[in-house]
TrEMBL record, chains A, B:
Residues 15-246 form the Endonuclease/exonuclease/phosphatase domain. InterPro entries: Endo/exonu/phosph_ase_sf, Endo/exonuclease/phosphatase, Sph/SMPD2-like. It comes from Pedionomus torquatus (Plains-wanderer). Belongs to the neutral sphingomyelinase family. This is sphingomyelin phosphodiesterase. The gene is Smpd2. It is found in: Membrane.
Amino acid sequence: MEGGPTLRLRVFDLNCWAIRYLSKRRQERVQLIGDVLRRESFDLVLLQEVWSERDYSDLKEKLGSRYPFSHYFRSGVIGSGLCVFSRFPILDTLLYQYSLNGYPYMLQHGDWFCGKSVGLGRWWHGVIMAMLPPSCQLHAEYCREKDAYLPHRLVQAWELAQFIRHTSKAADVVLVGGDLNMHPEDVGIRLLRGWTGLRDAFTEATRFEGCEDGCTLVPNNCFTVKSELLPFPLGIRIDYILYKVTSGVPRGSVLGPVLFNIVQGGWHPTEPPLSSTEATLADVVTEARTEVGVGLRAAQRQRYSTGRMAVLALLLLLLQAAAALGTLAGLGAGQPFPKLSFTLLAFLAIGVLLLATGLHLFHTMEVKMLQGTEEQMRMALRALQERP
Amino acid sequence: MEGGPTLRLRVFDLNCWAIRYLSKRRQERVQLIGDVLRRESFDLVLLQEVWSERDYSDLKEKLGSRYPFSHYFRSGVIGSGLCVFSRFPILDTLLYQYSLNGYPYMLQHGDWFCGKSVGLGRWWHGVIMAMLPPSCQLHAEYCREKDAYLPHRLVQAWELAQFIRHTSKAADVVLVGGDLNMHPEDVGIRLLRGWTGLRDAFTEATRFEGCEDGCTLVPNNCFTVKSELLPFPLGIRIDYILYKVTSGVPRGSVLGPVLFNIVQGGWHPTEPPLSSTEATLADVVTEARTEVGVGLRAAQRQRYSTGRMAVLALLLLLLQAAAALGTLAGLGAGQPFPKLSFTLLAFLAIGVLLLATGLHLFHTMEVKMLQGTEEQMRMALRALQERP
């Protein structure tokens, strides 16, 4: 309905890369980000990778006059790194933890220790917002072909899509901002957009000011690792603002920060005919399901091999216990091994047993979650095919 | 609106206590449960503690003709134990994992290993359903006063309430069934009901057939541990069916299984005046917040003591390393300790270091989640107080 009251939203989204002790010139950058935010007047500010609560408190203090409402989402060992600043009161928040988020033993990636979650806020005019924290460091092209994290990232994309579907039924405007760690044409992005009906603010924009092709990780940035971006001389686009308007129509010009002009009313944006959309969506879900299946088989293999290792370590321990008992009972001809090696071997076996058992439990969980996602996708495919 | 089309729902809810290798006469009981369900014609069947997927498959095969739609919620190492059978197509499901669920080292309770989650299903007529799995074994009265799990259970009740609020905005009927492991007057139940507006099917029932006071864990049950129920000669009520109708009015007679007669229409059930309700709700949230605060301080103490233990173990290791290096460099006067004791001590220190570090990480997470919940509750209280 043209001519209705206009809702204009200025949204700012940034992955701050503010890891304590690790990120270069962290405090200086956080301070500068705060300066920019205080100078500009956004309506919503979505920040990711603010890992230190101290940084959040500093920002909160600095921005209190311009953005009186804020929230920091706590989760995981280190935290979720997600926070939001707002000009409007935040009515309610909810945190959803992904069921899979990398491996605890991949310490160098550290994803498992981060809060594997999506934060949701609800504002008074029905805006709902979700932020996806970076699920894991995106690997450059030479690694994209053997991306071990792909099934986990697809499970996360699926869970995020499901979460948005279920929590946004009554929202007028849905905004999803964050570092999705996926290229625009990747199956995870297509799945997320297809299953939720979210639109990409960059591709829908009538006006855009920013890096070429909307890239958000560019070689010109003095903090990026140049070698990782070798296959992409222009850079890559992995940060997104996605949106959906259910009770109005977005007419947006997108600058660095996204700007929405939302006309309140009952008019719905024109959609492509349902049947063709659903055929494409079914293809995307099928593709994602295939990848999840590949991950499932890998997880099953790892569950099996860690289980076998645990059993072997247990057998070794039992053998040692039998030998020790035999020596004590005076059956053996003296001490077959030197005491020290014997003890060391026992401790080694105990260590392997504990480690292998822990990993076995972890991969059991992984198998369950991948199976669950695969089944949900099958259910979704059936629903898509059965719809008249 | 009287006289509108009537929606009649027959709902069955049961904690099946079907733990592989542990539950007595499991297979026999599961078979009998299947027989009853096949004989009766319910619309929705919510089962908890079906830990074995094999049991679920058996039930699915048996019940396929009467309940063509079903779903098993997978999560955790062992699983969530939740499944649902339905006469109506299940459009969509979602699993929400609680952020806290007991302690990994409390092996005898085993809660940490279970799927700490609530399952949600959506049906074609807008029914939304959530099932809360047993969060942990309820302790009898002598333990209720020193209930170490209370803060965790309150976090779960709060997260469940938030989850229901956010996912049920567009639902006509909300049903929550499950073993909540809380007495009707407990703060967790009051919090859940107050914050969501859910009604207790038992107290609202005009007709009821079942155990006295609606008890669901009774001494007469040959599988219950009599000693645990000594302070409650009649038994206790810990299983619930809660409901909310937003676009109709429930007129229910409640038998063993809950029976709803829902008249579709725009009429809303009469509610007590808003201000008095909100005053009570604020009291409940305050009470819950106090308990969460108690849990938070306990978790902070544990985080501190496990951290200290890790540091001590690390110091011991460093000391040993220095002594060993000193001996190697020929500084010491020979070997100060026998080699075996020295090695044993080193392994002990490594073990303590690993264990204490793991526990420290766990309690750090616990602190974060308790802090997060406390802040959400504070936000809720402010919203309650500020509302005109």
